[in-house]
Structure formats: C-alpha cells, structure tokens
C-alpha cells in the first residue's frame, strides 16, 4: 500500500473507499471501533449495563462483534450453537472456543444433536436444510437468552448482508421481511431484542479489522450453503459501489427512512404462546417444537439465580 495514514502520516494499512482515505493499522482500529460505538449510539442499540449475548459461529463477523463490544466495555457473554454438521461444525466450534478464550469471554455451547436428537442435515423432511437450520438457530438463541436473563442478543450482520437482504426482499416483494429489517429489533414478551452493531460496516472493513486485531476466524463455508443467490445480489451491489462509493450505505439508509411503508402493509400478527414450550408462536405449537416433535420444553437455564447476578454454569446438551 503506497498511501500514508491521513492522521499520523505512517505507512497505510488500508485504503477506505467511503469515505476515501488511507489509514495505518492503529488508526484504522480506532476508526472502526468509533464507528461501531456511533452505530450503537445512533440507533440506541445498547445500554451501558445491558447483559449482551453474542452468537458466535467461528466466522469473522460474530467474532469481531464480540471482540469490539468487549473492547468498548459492554458486558458480553457468547453462545455457540453446534449444528452437528460434521467436520464443518467441529471446526466452527473450535474457532469459537479459541476466539472466546483469547478474549477471556464466557462461552456457552448448545449442541443441537444432543438437544433434539439429530444434527442439521440429518432429518428426513421436505423442508430445505437452511430453512429449518435458520428456525432452529433463531429459536435456541432466543430461548437461551430468555431463559438466562440476557437483555439483548447481538449478531454480526454487516452492511453487505443488510443491503443484499433488502435488495433480494425487494426483488421478491417480500413485505413481511421488509417490515422487519434494521439495526434493532425490539424485544417483546418472551422475544429478546436483537441488535446489529456492525450495521454500517462493510464485509471488507470487518475482514481487515480481524486481520489488524489478530483475530483468527473460520473461512470455510457450510456444506449446505446455497450462497449462490445471495452472492449474486452482493456482486451486483459491489459493482455499483465500485462505480459510486457509498451506494450500499445510502440504499440501506433510504430503506430505514421508508420502512414504515412496509410496516403499514403488514398486519400485526397476533402471537400466542406455544402449547409445548410457552415461547411466542403464531400457531398453537411453535415451528421449533413442531419441527423437532417436542412434547416438553427444553430447559436451557445455566444460571440458577439470574436476578442476583450469579453467573454459575452448567453443561447443556
Ligand atoms: Fe445452516 Fe449451513 Fe444453511 Fe447456514 S448454510 S443456514 S449454517 S445449513
Ligand atoms: Zn495513523
Ligand atoms: Zn414451542
């Protein structure tokens, strides 16, 4: 890299495209963390005394989320969901464990196979693997956070994820999705709130932050990944971004300004409690309990007296 850091004049580590500038390693780390804090403040994502659960997969986005929130002084614990997808899950878990060890963060692990009898991809069903994997991850993440008194769940979604998701939802006119995206999903009843602290950072910036901070992460793709469509949307957006830096950010911010158009279209879906597990559900039995054929609820509590701040541990699953 030929340029010089805009702040200190040392040799540059990165050339940012938007805003256009060169930064050295140290000043890039500072820039990145300041930007995350600004996102948190701008969208009121976290309060200083919140207990935050970060879902870590072993990949870069979730690792950087846990890493930065910890550096910014938030109370963070991590959850890894072992999906039971052969070697891929084994490696994901090893990476998640190493990342949390290096950060000194407490890591909880839920093992899908032990909890419901099968790993992801081992069930005979017409439902696509990624569809029931997604519902399983969302359910376990929420139930774990709820059972253990976490205030909020933080995920590693970045600007590229968000832009391509809005783009594909628009292409398919999926109004239900379009009404619910954004950096923050408020909690309600037994649904714990979700936030995306990396909302305004690009995949490239996140990968470079991981390199600059020495975070080791898994790059392997899940064998079930049908990333092709998402990757096409990302490629289109990247092409536009190259021609006009700032396109993705403007697209996502424009969406946020107009989200209410979709919200109005969406009828309030009335949620009731699942007959089996008592968690929010649109039908009599929630899709998790129905899919996995549960007859009694999972108990994911690892803490006995949450309200007194004891943070004892037990193995689950
Ligand atoms: Fe689950 Fe793999 Fe599909 Fe991702 S790609 S949703 S981890 S099955
Ligand atoms: Zn510098
Ligand atoms: Zn249920």
What is the CA-atom radius of gyration, in angstroms?
Answer: 20 Å
CATH architecture: 3-Layer(aba) Sandwich
CATH topology: Rossmann fold
Indicate the mean pLDDT. 91
Main β-sheet, spatial strand arrangement = 5-4-3-6-8-7
Structurally, the number of domains stands at: 1
CATH class: Alpha Beta
Helix-strand pattern: EEHEHEHEHHEHHEEHHHEEH
End-to-end separation in angstroms reads 48 Å
**Biggest pleated-sheet summary:** 6 strands, mixed
**What class would the helix/strand composition place it in?**
alpha/beta
Question: What's the count of strands?
Answer: 10
Q: What percentage of the residues does DSSP assign to strands (E)?
A: 5-15%
Shape assignment: globular
Could you say which small molecules are bound to this protein? iron/sulfur cluster, zinc ion
CATH level-four homologous superfamily name: HUPs
The helix content is: 40-55%
Number of helices: 11
Q: In terms of per-residue confidence, which ranges show pLDDT below 50 for 5 or more consecutive residues?
A: 307-312
Characterization of the model:
- It is a single chain.
- The protein has 317 residues and is α/β, with parallel strands linked by helices.
- The chain has a single domain, classed as Rossmann fold (3-Layer(aba) Sandwich).
- Helix content is 44%, strand content 12%.
- It has helices at residues 25-42, 60-71, 86-103, 112-116, 129-147, 159-171, 175-178, 203-213, 228-243, 247-265, 287-292, and strands at residues 14-17, 20-23, 51-55, 75-82, 107-111, 152-154, 184-185, 193-195, 272-273, 280-281.
- The radius of gyration is 20 Å and the shape is globular.
- Iron/sulfur cluster binds at residues 83, 120, 129-130, 133-134, 222, 224-225.
């Amino acid at each position: 890299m030929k340029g010089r850091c805009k702040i200190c004049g040392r040799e540059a580590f990165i050339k940012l495209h938007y805003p256009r500038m060169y930064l050295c390693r140290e000043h890039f780390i500072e820039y990145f963390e300041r930007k995350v804090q600004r996102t948190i403040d701008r969208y009121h994502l976290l309060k200083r005394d919140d207990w935050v659960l970060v879902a870590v997969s072993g990949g870069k986005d979730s690792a950087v989320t846990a890493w930065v929130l910890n550096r910014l002084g938030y109370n963070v614990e991590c959850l890894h969901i072992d999906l039971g997808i052969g070697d891929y899950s084994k490696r994901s878990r090893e990476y998640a464990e190493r990342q949390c060890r290096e950060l000194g963060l407490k890591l909880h692990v839920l093992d899908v196979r032990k909890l419901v009898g099968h790993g992801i991809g081992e069930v005979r069903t017409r439902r696509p693997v990624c569809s029931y994997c997604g519902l399983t991850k969302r359910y376990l993440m929420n139930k774990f956070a709820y059972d253990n008194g976490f205030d909020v769940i933080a995920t590693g979604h970045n600007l590229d994820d968000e832009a391509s998701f809005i783009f594909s939802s628009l292409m398919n006119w999926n109004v239900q999705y379009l009404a619910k995206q954004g950096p923050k999903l408020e909690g309600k009843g037994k649904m714990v709130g979700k936030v995306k602290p990396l909302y305004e950072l690009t995949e490239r910036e996140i990968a470079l932050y991981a390199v600059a901070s020495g975070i080791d992460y898994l790059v392997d793709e899940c064998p079930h990944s049908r990333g092709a469509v998402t990757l096409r949307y990302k490629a289109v957006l990247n092409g536009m971004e190259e021609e006009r830096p700032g396109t993705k950010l403007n697209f996502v911010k424009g969406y946020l300004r107009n989200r209410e158009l979709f919200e109005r279209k969406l009828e309030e879906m009335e949620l009731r409690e699942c007959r089996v597990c008592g968690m929010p559900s649109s039908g009599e039995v929630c899709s998790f309990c129905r899919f996995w054929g549960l007859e009694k609820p999972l108990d994911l509590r690892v803490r006995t007296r949450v309200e007194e701040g004891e943070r004892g541990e037990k193995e689950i699953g």
